[in-house]
Specification:
Elements: H1 15-28, H2 30-51, H3 56-65, H4 67-82, H5 89-94, H6 96-99, H7 104-108, H8 117-125, H9 131-141, H10 146-174, H11 180-187, H12 194-231, H13 233-250, H14 253-268, H15 295-303, H16 336-364, H17 366-369, E1 388-389, E2 392-393, H18 403-412, H19 416-433, H20 445-452, H21 458-476, H22 483-491, H23 493-497
Antiparallel strand pairs: 1-2
Helix pairs in contact: 1-12, 2-3, 2-4, 2-12, 3-12, 4-8, 4-12, 8-12, 10-12, 18-19, 18-22, 19-21, 19-22, 20-21
Length: about 500
């Protein structure tokens, strides 16, 4: 890392200005950052979705959990670009395994929930510090800056969610009204298919794709600004630039000759004796002269003294009495203390009341949660048998003796909706009257399917799922099933009734 190669102007900045500099840095170098970043993130989202296609919600959680991995890749790009070493897309992708070796386990575990993650990441990835050294370094850097890093994380997290929700809303507005219900059912259905899971993960991934580079660059510039203040990078750069200018100036032969002529009177003068100070005649300037090579040791010894480098900050409350001088036209603050005490007492009483209400509710509804701990029995099912659901009469005597034959006859007469309605009505009647499934009028078709999942066997479960999906598509999406499919459901009807 060479300070002369840095591509931004180094000077002490306010923390918010440093974050803004990181955002501007991302905008100016978007091609270097976003091309390899998009390739890497898309590959991760697809691999996670395929690998966890049986657990779609867990795959979405894994994509969010892997953010420390994304941050390491982005920080590598930003750090090299900042010091005028812009990596290509292929170079960035090749360096990913090396960047992931630096304390990735801690980044994905006990450092994962740090709200200053982007601010502390350069200490881990660039300075290679671990354990106590890393902790001490982060404590020094975080003085007067940790709050800004936390707000940077919160703000970027909010914008990331807004980005994903906005994409869903944009797609919703672009499709015809007749298919909007299908889109909402696809996105917010509990029974996700692989295609639905892939779409949802990609929509969330786009939010990460856009916002995460700004988050990492903002935290990185906070880190650079803090080091500039602590280590005087701006002063060091000024001296280096001055040294380079002088070295170029002295290289010329004419300049060297003029410099020697200007210094020649100094070479001919006689050394003058220093005046003796009568007030401190025995005080030596130095007891012994030490070589120049011991300069660093001498500096360390000086700074190790108690009076050097010691900084102590004390905070506390001090009672100054009741006689507070107030201006005639000013506001009297003498009653604020009593108001604070009153509010504290009120909050305490409300808190106690809330705790007592929660305890009472837990006791009253203990049957609903004690079985989760293995204590007590499961809540009893409602013994009342429902007779009508979705406008359908579920009483057995209201149904034909041979439901499959009646439904087949309706399907052959092109009344596919009536055939599906009869089959679904027969299924609900069997679940309510024979299987004693606790179905209420508030349940939806998908909730009934989830409720029956643990009560019926696999063969009946498969038929119920297929019939429910076809009924929902026909009843709510106005998309009529094919005649062959309805006839197939009529032929499979014994699979649901044979095990009664």
């Amino acid at each position: 890392m060479k300070l002369e190669d840095i591509t931004v102007k180094i000077r002490p900045r306010d923390a918010w200005e440093a974050i803004d500099l990181g955002f501007k840095f991302t905008q100016q170098n978007w091609r270097v950052i976003y091309f390899p970043w998009a390739i890497f993130l898309t590959a991760v989202v697809i691999i996670v979705t395929i690998g966890l296609q049986r657990w779609p919600l867990f795959s979405l959680f894994v994509i969010w959990w892997l953010k420390p991995v994304y941050d390491r890749v982005l920080l590598s790009i930003c750090s090299r670009t900042l010091f005028n070493d812009k990596p290509g897309t292929e170079d960035t992708l090749r360096s990913i395994p090396e960047n992931l070796r630096s304390q990735l386990f801690s980044g994905l575990t006990y450092h994962r929930f740090s709200f200053s993650r982007s601010f502390y990441l350069p200490v881990t990835l660039l300075e290679k510090l671990k354990g106590t050294e890393r902790k001490n370094r982060c404590n020094i850097l975080s003085l007067r800056t940790s709050g800004h890093a936390v707000w940077l994380t919160v703000t970027c997290m909010i914008f990331e969610q807004i980005m994903s929700i906005t994409l869903i809303g944009f797609i919703y507005m672009m499709i015809p009204e007749s298919h909007q219900a299908d889109l909402m059912g696809m996105l917010f259905n509990d029974d996700y298919t692989f295609q639905q899971s892939l779409v949802i993960n990609l929509l969330y991934g786009i939010g990460i794709l856009v916002i995460e580079p700004f988050y990492v660059a903002g935290g990185f510039m906070l880190y650079i600004n803090r080091r500039t203040i602590l280590e005087g990078w701006d002063i060091e750069l000024s001296f280096r630039n001055l040294s380079n200018r002088l070295s170029k100036l002295i290289k010329g032969p004419t300049t060297t000759l003029l410099l020697l002529l200007a210094l020649s009177p100094l070479l001919l003068t006689q050394p003058a004796a220093a005046e003796v100070d009568d007030e401190y005649p025995e005080e030596p300037i130095a007891q012994s002269l030490r070589p120049v090579t011991d300069s660093s040791t001498v500096v360390e010894e000086i700074f190790a003294r108690e009076e050097m480098g010691k900084k102590e900050t004390r905070k506390g409350l001090e009672y100054i009495g009741d006689n507070v001088d107030t201006d005639a036209d000013g506001f009297d603050f003498s009653g604020i203390g009593e108001l604070i005490v009153y509010l504290a007492q009120t909050f305490k009483i409300l808190l106690v009341l809330v705790i007592l209400i929660l305890i009472a509710m837990a006791i009253l509804h203990r049957d609903k949660w004690l079985h989760l701990l293995g204590i007590g029995d499961l809540p009893k099912k409602d013994e009342a048998v429902i007779e009508s659901l979705f406008g359908m009469d579920l009483r057995p005597d209201s149904l034909p003796d041979d439901i499959a034959s009646s439904a087949r006859q309706l399907a052959e007469n092109n009344d596919l909706r009536g055939a599906l309605s009869l089959l679904y009505r027969g299924v609900l009647s069997i679940l309510v009257n024979h299987d004693k499934l606790a179905i209420s009028s508030a349940h939806t078709e998908n909730e009934i399917l989830a409720l029956a999942d643990s009560e019926i066997k696999n063969t009946r479960k498969s038929y119920l799922g297929q019939l429910t999906n076809e009924w929902i598509r026909t009843a709510y999406s106005q998309s009529i099933s094919t005649q062959d499919l309805v006839l197939s459901l009529c032929d499979q009807w014994p699979q649901f009734t044979v095990q009664q």
